[in-house]
Amino acid sequence: MSDPEEPRRSADTASSETKPGQGAPEGAPGGAHAPAPEPGQESAPGSGPDAEAVAVTDAGADIASESDAEPDPESGRESDPGAAPMPANDDADAPGAPPPSAVPPRWLRIFGHSGIAQILLVIVTLAAFVPGFWSVPPLDRDEPRFAQASRQMLETGNYSDIRFQEETRYKKPVGIYWLQVAAAKVTGYGADAPIWVYRLPSIAGAILAALLTFWAARAFTGPPQAFLAALFVALALVVGVEARLAKTDAMLFATIVASQGALARMWLSGKAKQPLRLVLTFWIALGLGILIKGPVAPMVVGLTIAALVTMNRRGRWLASLRPLLGLGILVVLVAPWFIAIGIATKGAFFQEALGRDLIGKLGQGQESHGAPPLTHLAVMFGTFWPMPAFLLAAIASAIRNRRAAIVQFCVAWVVPSWIVFELVATKLPHYTMPLLPGLAILTAFGLVTTADAAPRKWLVWIMALVLAIVPVVFAVASIAGPLMLSVSPSPPGVVLCVFAAVVAIYAVRKLIAGPVINAVPRVVLTALLLYAGVWGFVMPSLSPIWVSPRLAEAADGASGCAKAEIFSVGFNEPSFIFLTATDTRLGSAQEAATWISGAGALPDCRVVAVESRYEGDFLAKAKALGVALALSSRVEGVNINGGRKLDIAVYKRTNQ
């Protein structure tokens, strides 16, 4: 930045003096002089009243070269990778004041090169998300509920109503079910699709979220810094979990990041008229987010807009969102299904989704998921790992550069919605995931702009603890967990987890030696090793917690028919329904005994799985009815929800 006492230099001079390693953010003006704003038009955030050029500082851009030039999304021109930082405003506290420039480390300039950054992101996300994708059984309870409801759409051909067996499931809109149905049809499995097919929209959403984080960050900065932010998203523990679960959150995540990326570009531009593709991206992504999980996407995006307007006291740029066009897009995308389901259910969907599910979560913790305020902040150090360790180092830079556009947008993205999530009574770890990219972009910005500045020693040791504790805990758990369940640890899983912990220690040493940013490559390796070990080997080997797959296999083995008829007593997990059949019955011991003795039954087809607590009642009722039973097998294990030990007997009817 220029000395405030010196005369303001022209944009041409500033551009010619740009350091190697600085590039322009995507959408930064490619020429030396920006056109003057039209009369009555607001200047873009970050421009002073007499600024001669509009450009956003690239605190972590690529080496300036002609080959790095990328199209300007606002004008279609090639942006100048060597564009200068924005001239300093007379008012140092003006919103969007440029942060100090810095050259990213060599490894980040290489891997964050605009030509390969996105390819590397796809490779990293696949390496992080694929282990265990096929081998981990359905994880109770939400995942099999979503997958089973989608399967029933395929079985019945009714793609508007949402049901789990005969029970209506009116908690979420239909978007994710349609995506799962599409995945089952495209892969050719149809209603017989295994669980991994229903997970395909989730892994696609998680990969898209990482790539869209890169795109969102490019509104403010160059490829290296954007690549670093996207890495933090791709490696976050919670993103890896949601990528492997057939539910709403990963795809919702992608829609929110897409809307926020478009919003960032329109806010930075400040122009009344925006490219149609940005407007369409914003509203279509928002509409898809509503179809997937109702009000969450509008809440995050709406609070971001409100915070930006409040911080800068500027609102005229909102016209660039073209709200009338946007309302039309939302009506076209969202209204048909909402109208259809409202008519079909006579309003029951809205009573359940809004009156019970949404409002119920606001007032009290549902399904034992209540927690006090600040819970999300505390668990973030685990769910967002490994990013929080580096966030601690970046906070000081964000505070110093609080008027920078990139900082203002990230704060607007994160803080208001985070407060809402903390105040909501029901708390689950993935609720704050849509805010992760804002923190990741802020962290990448802080690391690059302070790459040569060492944090205080006490802070470095806290960062080291946050960084090391997760892989060390998982390494210990990879051995202790199986032993506690009375099974042998998985040798490949243990080796990978222990190796990950060792690499994490080396990363900590690099972090302590500094610069902090140079610990990132070892952290990437740590995370990939850890996820491969945990998801690829340790989790599938924990057979005692995977009761449903073993029980379904035992029931099929007990039946003498191609398709067993099953009645379950005392074990009602949704995964068991998904792994058996939609018509699997659930009920009491007396009902099961009456059912298996029913007139006209095919004795060889009917099987009862009864938990040991109800076994005596079942046998007594069957004896009273004169039904001869044979014990086929027993399945023991631990219920993953609550940790209760299970002992389930599988009975079949005999002719004796």
From TrEMBL:
MF terms (GO), sorted A to Z: pentosyltransferase activity
Biased composition (Basic and acidic residues): 1-11
Domain Glycosyltransferase RgtA/B/C/D-like, first and last residues per copy: 171-338
Top-rank taxon, per record: Bacteria
Annotated spans, Disordered: 1-101
GO CC annotations on file: plasma membrane
UniProt name for this protein: 4-amino-4-deoxy-L-arabinose transferase-like glycosyltransferase
Record-level GO BP terms: lipopolysaccharide biosynthetic process; response to iron(III) ion
Residue stretches spanning the membrane: 116-136, 203-220, 226-243, 250-268, 280-309, 321-344, 377-399, 406-425, 431-451, 458-485, 491-508, 520-538
Main localisation: membrane
Lipid bilayer topology: Multi-pass membrane protein
Subcellular location: Cell membrane
The keyword Disulfide bond belongs to this UniProt entry's keyword annotation: no
Composition skew (Low complexity), residue ranges: 20-42
InterPro entries assigned to the protein according to its UniProt record, in alphabetical order: LipidA_mod_glycosyltrf_83, RgtA/B/C-like
Family matches, as Pfam families: PMT_2
Key words, A-Z: Cell membrane, Glycosyltransferase, Membrane, Transferase, Transmembrane, Transmembrane helix
